[in-house]
Amino acid sequence: MAATARARFVHNRSRRRAADESSDEQQDASSSSSSDDDGGDEEEEEMEVEGSEEEEAVADEPAAREPPAAAGRGGRKGPITISLKKVCKVCKKTGHEAGFKGAVYIDCPMKPCFLCKMPGHTTLTCPHRVAMEHGVIPAPRRNTNTSLDYVFQSQVKGKISMVKPRFLVPNQLECGNIKFHQRRVTCLEFHPTKNNVLLSGDKKGLLGIWDYVKLHEKITYDSVHSCILNSMKFDTANDGVLYTASSDGTISSTDLDTGIGSPLLNLNPDGWSGPSTWRMIYGMDLNTEKGLLLVADSFGFLYLLDRRSKERIGQPILIHKKGSKVTGLHCNPAQPEVLLSSGNDHFARIWDTRKLDPKSALASLAHGRVVNSGYFSPRSGNKIMTTCQDNRIRVWDYIFGNLESPSREIVHSHDFNRHLTPFKAEWDPKDYSETVAVIGRYISENYNGVALHPIDFIDTSTGKLLAEVMDPDITTISPVNKLHPQDEILATGSSRSIFIWKPKSDIDPTEERTSQKVKEYVYGSGSRKKPNGKHDNSSDDDSDGGGGKSKKAKKTRFTHTAKGKGKSKA
């Protein structure tokens, strides 16, 4: 009986063995197990198969009793080695570690520096992190003595103030609209006539309007676009009309009072038929003199629209590599027919819109990686500033000079991942000297044990960091930043929230301790307050209600005040 039980056990074990084992080996194991009848009852309880070169435990026994595969003859286990050496998660080598330690991120020394992309040092010891102006040498001025040079000297340069005005840093958090949007903020724009009104767009295509002085006056329209709202421009003839560009391939003219939008351009009239044919719109600008709306898609083409007749002019023109995305467009403020485009093909190009042709670019500015944005200086239009994914801000001081290389390259942390809105350095529209720019920072800094992502104010003429603005209540990254055209106000988009910053008032330190600045927050439709006072980070798609042509979100009546002060390190 015992022999029969063993034979049945061996038969079941043969099913679980590898397919390449022959039936002869199974039979040998069976015969050797059944021939040993001494102490058969004990063997049946232990269920061990003897006669083979390696001992195996029965599947009916607990897994913990199974000897390891490395066990040798006689059931003797092999040695177990435990290594206490530090292993890097990036390069898998020993002797060092990489990652966050508290609020400080330590990168792998075997990889190039994440900030300047150069080998030989880590991000923590990068000289550009110690001093942003490290290695920034202004290019020598070249006197071309051409007719264009004399035109610049007589007409353009006279508009630039020779005395640099006092620079006020909006370094104190004034108020915030917490989770105003259901998805991350993608663009911001101040109203041209209503100084206290800020417009914002998000990844879902929602358009938000917020009066940050009255706090509670806010409206959201979720029927303008079906996905990412990438760019906004006001109609200069009617400030109640807003032009918006979206990744759904449409340009819309939206009435801000009703939220009803009329499509001006639809690049996907047949709907979705796959990513190879779906066109998205990122770049858009307005030529006010000619009444033209310039639009560029994700395949490298430029479209011209008549703002008055709302019709397309001519055929699309290829301005960047075919199949590459045009990330931005900007018309020169002094000469609107001069256009600057930036693209995914690692180039920024200058065009004359009066004679457009695929090979008629006035200049092609080469970059190391994708160009997130490119802007002419806001008053004279004489300078160019671009933001590139290689962690470089490039500045050209003279558009009529040598454009083969920039006047200076400023190393700055804005190389981001795909879950963030692209960082874009923008000029301060109030700065007559055309030197101040603002941009968010990707790499976090340790401020009293908290990892914060500052917003940087940079002097583009020297590369120096003028100020870094942060607040302990904002621990998320702020890639979208917009300076007010008249007031000393900074608006920032961080995740789904919007914040307003103003300069810190000059008061006596003793008075500052007794009367702390109160920061006011209003909570949007995407935020829910829990009983413990914290807020739900969930983003429900149905929080704005059902469908419709024009929808307004319910105005939130709940406000919350928190005492505290923003920080600024100049």
From TrEMBL:
Top-rank taxon: Eukaryota
Keywords: DNA damage, DNA repair, DNA-binding, Metal-binding, Nucleus, Repeat, Ubl conjugation pathway, WD repeat, Zinc, Zinc-finger
Entry keyword Iron: no
Primary location recorded for the protein, binned into one broad class: nucleus
A single Gene Ontology CC term: nucleus
Placement of WD repeats on the sequence: 178-211, 364-397
Entry's localization field: Nucleus
Disordered as annotated region, ranges: 1-77, 507-570
InterPro entries per record: DDB2, WD40/YVTN_repeat-like_dom_sf, WD40_repeat_dom_sf, WD40_rpt
Feature: compositional bias, Acidic residues: 35-59
Basic and acidic residues biased stretches: 507-520
One Pfam family from the record: WD40
Bias (Basic residues): 549-570
UniProt record, GO biological process: DNA repair; response to UV
Family (UniProt): Belongs to the WD repeat DDB2/WDR76 family.
PANTHER family in UniProt: DAMAGE-SPECIFIC DNA BINDING PROTEIN 2, DNA DAMAGE-BINDING PROTEIN 2
Protein name: UV-damaged DNA-binding protein 2
Source organism (scientific name): Triticum aestivum
Name of encoding gene: LOC123076991
